[in-house]
Amino acid sequence: MKRIAMAALAALALTTMSGIASADTIKVGVVGPFSGPFALQGKNFKAGIDAYMTLNGNTVGDDTIEILYRDVPQPDPAQSRALAQELVVKEGVQYLTGFYFTPDAMAVTPLLEQANVPLVIMNAATSAIVTKSPLVVRTSFTTWQTSTPIAKVAYDRGVSKIISVVSDYGPGVDAENAFKTAFEAAGGTVVEAIRMPLSTNDFSPIMQRIKDSGAQAVFAFLPSGPTTLGFVKAYNQNGLKQAGIQFFAPGDLTQESDLPALGDTAEGILTTFHYAVSHDSPENKTFVEAAQKAIGNPAELSFPAVGAYDAMHVIYKMIEATGGEQDAQKAVDAVKGLAWQSPRGPVEIDPETRHITQNIYLREVGKNEDGTYYNKEIQTFEKQGDPGLAAAK
Ligand code: PHB
Question: Is the pTM of this model over 0.85?
């Protein structure tokens, strides 16, 4: 017995010394809203992860990938940081990912270097997050990236006076600045800029202010979820649509999973975004099939799933490049400049910013023959980087 144990120990030492990687379990910690009002967004994270692992397997080299989920239902930086810490210290995760809300991602960036863990952001969209640590990579979008093109679209369609309405936190402030910068550069005027508390759910007073502003149109950003559904409904119920006040926004406002509840309220709304479920490509067909199967109800599929799917691609590449060893800087360096065909179209991790360069699509909410609604891509703004990071320089 003793001799066998000694031999096993010696073999283990030899493997370690010669640097030959042994088969391990690599843990990936996912933080997101898996319960509460934003649970559907978290469910989309999981659908994207499941789709990726169904199509690509749950091993990289000799290593088996294990996913650990932690729930932060609403923006809560303290809870997010505590759960990330628990994942790193108690569970020994080698990668952190997920993060729907900006404040939750921001709270975790100070932990990364000491923990030797990369953070691959599946959603949080404030430009500055990637500047908070060299170990952050993002596969979603920024609201600078998605709100800049819609300003040009609004101006080109004859709008010269617009009112801006955003949620008062990181991605909302970024959206307001992005829109104003591009709209004024085109020649238009933002007549009023309203910032609403994130917790706002009665939008009638805001709708009255929009009507009173004399603007021809409204630009709006809120984080996708019950918030966006309520806002677009209020736009209709308060008579703004009938009054001819047009609606422009990034695609968060017409996510596919909201369209059944919005019905003809959303029809014709123009948004710009990095992804539409209807995107016509072989990669997207494969993705949508797998992700709809994973989520169960196909109508629930929305953009956080594609951010999650691509985050898994990045994490698999990181694991490949490090041979499964825990070396966060090496892992991040390995994906700088990584380019691939995402379900959304061609993408690349910008080697300087570690944010994703991608096409942004102009989409119009249209009606299928069966009476359901979808985001129809009608124009492409190719290879968009993040104007927010450029503006901050
Ligand atoms: C964010 O908090 O960064 C965020 C959340 C939901 C969105 C966009 C941005 O739809």
Answer: yes
